[in-house]
Specification:
- The protein has a single domain, classed as paralog of FGE (formylglycine-generating enzyme).
- The chain starts with a strand and ends with a strand.
- The chain is built from 4 helices and 15 strands.
- The chain has a 4-stranded mixed β-sheet with strand order 13-12-11-14. The chain has a 3-stranded antiparallel β-sheet with strand order 5-7-6.
- With 276 residues, the protein is of the alpha+beta class.
- Strand 6 and strand 7 form a beta hairpin.
Length: 276
């Protein structure tokens, strides 16, 4: 594991631009983080496999017997399964897990260097306990992703400056057609795109990353004040290969969302930080 040592300091979390989702709690606010170290890449399939081999850990997806898979990654003749109401592109696939990201017909043999997915927050915590590491706080994660910048993305305010793709996100018409113009459909290797100014790779796009923090939304009445945290939901950052301007602009350092601690899907993984 390659570590990036960061100095910490004060910075502005959130975002003021028209890309922001105020309802997600992206209100600009000052935050301060202590010096810390974060992994240069997300946890890979081969790293998670070593953990499972050493501990016999069964993920929540394996215990439940299914996980959510993006329909666009399933074969055309795949049997109809239950979809998410209002987001029918998410399909319940029995047998889907970190070992078999699209179900029993798939495996990770050729994806050792891709981020592990179909891992819940509880699975990520179990890995951290075994490896002697931890999940970053939301503030630490955003500090690392912004890399000292104040623009929408670490490279500026253009999504694809000069037509250059800087991260793995959905290309084309979501959800029907992904052209793969950025070189990938589904996940890509954890270091497939250039690192940011701090030397940290693929914080944006590819796979959502769990953080340590319980979900709460900054108060619009008293800046900096947090609503009561929901310990059953944890903050996720960074967006994924399914983010697209037409439906989910959460592929920015300031963006945030959450999920329950036992939830998993084909676009959620994690990155680790060093323990104090």
């Amino acid at each position: 594991m390659t570590w990036v040592e960061l100095p910490g300091g004060e910075f502005e979390m959130g975002e003021r631009s028209g890309w922001a989702y105020p309802g997600d709690g992206e209100l600009p606010r000052l935050a301060r983080v202590r010096p810390f170290a974060v992994a240069a890449t997300a946890v890979r399939n081969d790293e998670f496999a070593a953990f499972v081999s050493a501990t016999g850990h069964r993920t929540d997806a394996e215990i439940y017997g299914w996980s959510f898979v993006f329909a666009g990654l399933l074969p055309d003749d795949f049997d109809d399964t239950r979809g998410v109401v209002g987001a029918e592109w998410w399909r319940q696939v029995f047998g889907a897990s970190w070992r078999a990201p699209e179900g029993s017909h798939s495996d990770v043999a050729e994806r050792a260097d891709h981020p592990v997915v179909h891992v819940s927050w509880r699975d990520a915590q179990a890995y951290c306990d075994w490896a002697g590491v931890r999940l970053a706080s939301e503030a630490e994660w955003e500090f690392a992703a912004k890399a000292g910048t104040t623009t929408t993305w670490p490279w500026g305010d253009e999504l694809e400056p000069g037509g250059e793709h800087r991260m793995n996100v959905f290309q084309g018409r979501f959800p029907a057609e992904n052209t793969g113009a950025d070189g990938w459909i589904g996940t890509c290797p954890v270091d497939a795109f250039a690192s940011n100014q701090f030397g940290i790779a693929n914080l944006l796009g590819n796979a959502w990353e769990w953080t340590a923090d319980a979900w709460s939304v900054p108060s619009e009445v008293t800046p900096g004040e947090l609503a009561i945290a929901d310990a059953g939901r944890r903050v996720m950052k960074g967006g994924s290969y399914l983010c697209h301007e037409s439906y989910c602009r959460r592929y920015r350092p300031a963006a945030r969302t959450s999920n329950t601690v036992d939830s998993s899907s084909g676009n959620v993984g994690f990155r680790v930080a060093r323990r104090d």
